[in-house]
Amino acid sequence: MITVKLTAQNDPQFSFDKGVGIVAPDSSLSLHFQFNMQNRVELKTPSTENWTVDEFSAKIRRFRLKFSGFVLNPRLTYKIQLAMAPGNISSVTQGQAPRVMYDAMIYYQFNNRFSLGFGQTALPGNRDRINSSTSLQLVDRSLLNSTFNLDLDFGLQGKYKFNPGGQRPLVFHGAITTGEGKNWVVVEQAGFSYTGRLDWYPFGSFLKSSAYKEGDLEWHTSPRLMAGLSYNYNDRAQRAGGQRGGLLYANRNISTIYGDVIFKYRGWSIQGAFTTRDSEDPITFDPSGEQISYVYNGSGYSTQMSKYFRSDWELVGRLAGVRPGDGIQDLTPEKRDWTIGLNRYISGRAIKLQADATLHESRTRGTDFTGRFGFRLQAQVGF
Predict the structure, then answer these.
(1) What residues does each domain of the chain span?
(2) Which of 21, 212, 278, 301 has a Cα-to-Cα distance from 30 of 20 to 30 A?
(3) For residue 115, what are the β-bridge partners?
(4) How far apart are CA 148 and CA 234, in angstroms?
(5) CA separation for the pair 144, 302 (Å, rounded)
(6) What's the start-to-end Cα distance of the chain, in Å?
(7) How far is 78 from 181, CA to CA, in rounded Å?
(8) Is 13-382 a domain of CATH 2.40.160.10?
(9) What is the pLDDT of residues 269-327, one digit of tens each?
(10) pTM for the full model?
């Protein structure tokens, strides 16, 4: 992020990859501004045999405004992110305000090892979700992520580096949050959510902190690997996905485990992830016993491989799937996505064109997979 002192002779400066930065003349505060816009066209066929268009959409998928900086002391920082796309303006879940506010965090950096934050932001669950949406290789995140991710929540988050500057960094992320997800306004508090994540870099740190950015645009000349392991326990969750999903008719305890790796070397990038979620007695009933709501017990996987070329083109492939566990196998199908993508980078990850094609497959218990095709085109502009 660029920062420049603002005087009568010195206007704010910016670059596409770092945004705009301003520092007050007395150095008492700073303001950094970035924005990101993703416009998308998507269509799907009814089956693999019938290639007529069954579903079509053209929309602003994401429009984000981001602000960050420090106040009074460079150790005291803030982070704000607003989501202004049409899909964020209205609420879809009872008890949740419109999903405009994403990040609203205050951080204090105690030393080069430990920092603590308070507010709302993404939980340290699966790496796929922690990735910024501006740094995705395919048009959107995986099927594993859409089913199991922890999303955002409000509370305390800490980060501790065991050996900052070492050859094999080890980083711990921890969070204690409300457990109800972003922008939750219902007063009743059932239990809390507890999250921990450990990141290990056995070959050293990635260039430009790109462990949480997909693709090897940095062109690592020596191999880099990050292995991550996360655990979340949501005590007496009110929603089907813990921090996400519709309301349950009764509270449930939910445990989720994530494991993921990412490897980069000379334009090649390989990443994999596995998730399992468990909740005892996942099905809940309304007072009449006629309506149900359930926790998605089960597991998911995702593997992704790409090759970035110095000409700023990139080829990507991904296989991802989710499998319902015991108790809900008759309520929801097993799903599997095969995706290939092509990217053209115009100004790093900030400005790019993306296209991908997916074979969406699903099956219910005791049946074979059936599928249909989906095609997406997306243009992204940001700075």
Answers:
(1) 13-382
(2) 212
(3) 109, 159
(4) 13
(5) 6
(6) 10
(7) 20
(8) yes
(9) 999 999 999 999 999 999 998 999 999 999 999 999 999 999 999 999 999 999 999 88
(10) 0.91
